[in-house]
Specification:
Blueprint lengths: L5 E5 L8 E3 L13 E6 L2 E12 L13 E2 L9 H13 L4 H7 L17 E5 L1 H8 L6 H10 L4 E2 H5 L5 H10 L3 E5 L15 H11 L6 E7 L5 H14 L3 E5 L7 H11 L4 E3 L5 H12 L5 E4 L11 E7 L16 H12 L2 E6 L4 H8 L4 E5 L10 E6 L5 E2 L2 E2 H12 L3 E5 L9 E3 L15 E4 L4 E4 L5 E3 L12 E3 L7 H8 L5 E4 L1 H4 L4 H10 L4 E5 L12 E6 L3 H5 L5 H13 L10 E6 L5 H9 L1 H15 L6 E9 L2 H13 L7 E13 L2 E10 L2 H17 L7 E6 L5
Parallel strand pairs: 9-14, 9-15, 10-12, 10-13, 11-12, 13-14, 16-28, 19-26, 19-27, 25-26, 27-28
Antiparallel strand pairs: 1-2, 1-4, 3-4, 3-5, 6-7, 6-8, 17-18, 20-24, 21-22, 22-23, 29-31, 29-32, 30-31
Helix pairs in contact: 1-2, 1-11, 4-6, 7-8, 18-20, 19-20
Bound molecules: adenosine-5'-diphosphate (ADP) and zinc ion (2 copies).
Length: about 725
């Protein structure tokens, strides 16, 4: 046996390598991108062949042989996709098997998983049509089937309804040459004309279309309601009518029936949908339709990114700043960054759209790496809302709401309008703050905000690890008014429901809308335009179009001002801007009320007075001064374990063997959510000006980290370009 003809396979095991196997001696050969079943220890695993014809460094007599070549030897992942996955496991320092698994629908990760047969259709032949011209006689069943096919080709599903034995009847007709079964033809787009584009939209469409057929990243930076979706659809129309496929990625919460209907009506094709909530069979069918090129348009969340699409001509990523595009566990990739990479590999354009672009994308646009298209006006000409800032120090609150805000809600509801009350409950760590003077703890060593760890009664710095006991009284004004910010909002919904008993109160939060259909029902009710009060979290801030909303109340966003996470201010700005974008989108003007303990905070005043663009500019300056992303590059070594000391010991050992170079490493730092499910979480921070330098150092370091004896007591992983601390 010649060792130069081995196969290199990605297997679903958490080891940072590929595995060599001998090919089968007979039968169909395995191909790159194809599935094989192989022995692995005492188990049998399904893997994806990455390379064939390789010379293994392992002696041939110690190599095992591929057991089965699956899928009749067909490649499921094409070469370009394999190249992208290869880039991913190198860049994100993740086991190849984990990365490749992300590209397969769960149903295909076992050997039993079978791809569904391609859909077929049944149609009349000339002989069949002739037979229809004569009376049915005694062949009633056959005649009925011929009649069913008379209007045009029919699918299994549509014939199944006719009779239990339709298949046998059809076979008889096929035998007689009266019918035939053929592959279903590809769907073709039948676009409907959209509205006349405004000039800013026209410019954006022209810019993107001029780059069809080559790589270019476009940042579509347009205020809420400025017609970004219309821009996507105009470009999609061109791509689809040229016979190419398109991939549209949306945030987890943005994938609504409303959006899908809009696409299908305008583009004249049913979008194929992929998200993690689909049943395995549905997901497989959608994946297979995209992979075989039958489905021209794929709309999905993060996980749809790796779907093979042979004629992919355009990638669109809507709400590109959204945190759900970053996978936060396992293979921690950024769907935005990988989407850009995929487009570059395929030499096609990619469009990133947002009303509040991420600092990463803004920087790329400013430095001309991205083409920057701005839509400054709302398409419907609705005015942008007016702001009212309420100082929480000067007013009594009930469950976090001031009387002034409550009055405003009451007036709007009396007028029969729609109101949105926005709570920000998730995503920020608690801080200890004084309700009477606004004091909160700062680290003496690095000026970062201290996080309150209530259980241990400690204040803790997430940058340097400094800790101290939490005070009993406010150190500034001596008042007995210290509270954990971000608490006490839970009861607000119930309170509002009691205050406004005659008005429907709709709750939008993860607990409520995770039940199937609830979100859609509630959205439909809001769109009816009847008076109602919406109470919700982040979820309400996403791109829904609520023309009837005239008042938005933001209960409190101050936690972002104290957060230990340097991205908190960016997220706060995006959130405030997005929430505000919900107000007054139609004829009626909108008002946004923002309650805060810090009306004079420079970040807040900048955002409210100058808008998101100026605010983002200022944030970028700050990041530059601190050398933080996107003006520097960051990676975390994360670790967790039941015993806090194990985590600390491992991270200290890892820090000690970090190689010299341009990147700095420091820590261990406790994670903002320090303990989850009984496990203590901490990390090391690696920071460098230069991305490739950082990666080189990390690549040198990881084998040493793997070899540490303390590594065995913890669960650890790399987080490249982390989004959460
Ligand atoms: P965005 O995606 O930026 O929030 P949309 O594309 O959803 O904005 O547009 C907001 C509203 O304006 C939609 O109702 C859309 O149909 C409408 N619209 C968009 N472009 C135009 C246009 N050129 N003329 C008239 N109406 C438009
Ligand atoms: Zn105080
Ligand atoms: Zn500190």
């Amino acid at each position: 046996m010649n060792a130069a003809s081995c196969l290199r396979v990605a297997l679903p095991v958490p080891l940072p390598q590929l595995f060599d196997y001998l090919p089968r001696e007979s039968g169909r050969p395995a191909v790159p991108g194809g599935r094989v079943s192989v022995p692995f220890g005492k188990r049998r695993l399904v893997g994806i062949v990455i390379e064939t014809g390789v010379a293994s460094e392992i002696a041939p007599d110690r190599l095992q042989r591929v057991e089965t070549v699956l899928d009749d030897g067909e490649a499921l992942l094409d070469e370009r996709l394999l190249a992208l996955l290869h880039w991913c496991w190198q860049y994100y320092k993740r086991a190849p098997g984990d990365v490749v698994a992300a590209a397969l629908p769960p149903a295909l990760r076992t050997a039993r998983g079978q791809r569904p047969p391609p859909p077929q259709i049944h149609q009349l032949t000339d002989a069949g049509r002739e037979r229809l011209g004569a009376p049915p006689g005694r062949e009633t069943a056959r005649y009925a089937l011929l009649e069913a096919m008379a209007p045009g080709p029919q699918t299994d599903a549509s014939l199944r309804g006719l009779a239990g034995r339709w298949r046998a009847t059809l076979d008889a007709l096929i035998d007689k040459g009266m019918a035939e079964t053929v592959m279903a033809p590809l769907t073709e787009a039948q676009p409907q004309p959209g509205p006349e584009l405004r000039s800013e939209q026209r410019t954006a469409v022209d810019a993107i279309v001029s780059n069809l057929g080559r790589f270019r990243c476009h940042l579509l930076d347009g205020v809420t309601g400025s017609g970004k979706t219309e821009v996507y659809m105009c470009v999609l129309e061109q791509v689809l009518t040229a016979g190419q496929q398109a991939l549209v990625l949306v945030p987890e919460i943005g994938l609504t029936p409303q959006l899908l209907r809009r696409f299908s009506r305008r583009l004249g094709v049913e979008p194929n949908v992929i998200h993690s909530g689909l049943a395995a069979g549905e997901r497989l069918a959608a994946w297979e339709a995209a992979r075989t090129g039958r489905a021209p348009l794929l709309v999905g969340t993060r996980s749809a990114l790796f779907t093979p699409m042979p004629r992919l001509g355009l990638v669109v990523l809507d709400e590109e700043h959204d945190a759900s595009f970053k996978q936060q566990e396992g293979f921690r990739y950024s769907a935005r960054d990988v989407a850009v990479k995929r487009a570059a590999e395929l030499n096609i354009p990619v469009v990133l759209g947002s009303a509040t672009p991420s600092l990463e994308s803004l920087r790329n646009a400013k430095e001309k790496r991205y083409d920057w298209q701005r839509l400054r006006e709302r398409a419907t000409r609705a005015a942008l809302p007016s702001w009212r800032v309420l100082d929480l120090r000067q007013q009594r609150t009930v469950h976090g709401l001031t009387e002034t805000a409550l009055d405003a809600v009451s007036i709007a509801l009396d007028r029969g309008e729609q109101v949105m009350v926005f709570l920000n409950r998730r995503g920020y760590a608690p801080v200890l703050m004084c309700q009477s003077c606004g004091w909160h703890g700062l680290c003496e060593r690095c000026d970062a905000n201290l996080t309150w760890h209530r259980g241990g009664g400690r204040l803790c710095c997430h940058h340097c690890g400094h800790q101290r006991r939490a005070p009993e009284l406010c150190p500034e004004c001596r008042a007995d008014a210290l509270v954990g910010a971000g608490e006490g909002t839970q009861q607000l919904e119930e309170y509002l429901a009691k205050q406004f008993e005659s008005v429907p109160v709709l709750r939008f939060d993860r607990d409520r809308v995770s039940r199937k259909g609830v979100m859609d029902e509630q959205l439909a009710q809001v769109r009816e335009g009847e008076c109602c009060l919406m109470v919700g979290t982040q979820m309400l801030a996403k791109g829904h179009h609520f023309p009837g909303v005239t008042l938005v109340v933001i209960v409190n966003t101050d936690q972002a001002l104290y957060s230990a996470d340097y991205r908190a201010l960016e997220r706060m700005g995006q959130m405030i801007q997005q929430v505000a974008g919900r107000a007054g989108r139609a004829e009626k003007p909108g008002t946004v009320i923002l309650q805060t303990l810090h009306p004079e905070h420079p970040a807040l005043s900048l955002l409210l007075e100058k808008g998101y663009a100026a605010y983002a500019e200022w944030l970028l300056e700050e990041r530059k001064l601190a050398g933080l992303p996107p003006c520097g590059h960051q990676a975390l070594l994360r670790a967790d374990a039941h015993d806090r000391a194990d985590v600390e010991r491992f991270l200290r050992d890892a820090l000690a063997c970090f190689p010299r170079g341009a990147a700095r490493a420091f820590g261990p730092v406790p994670a903002i959510m320090e303990r989850i499910g009984g496990r203590w979480r901490m990390y090391l921070v690696l920071l460098a000006e230069d991305r490739s330098g950082l990666h080189r150092q990390v690549d040198h370091w990881l084998p040493r980290v793997r070899g540490l004896s303390t590594a065995r007591k913890v669960r650890w992983s790399m987080d490249i370009d982390p989004q959460e601390l």
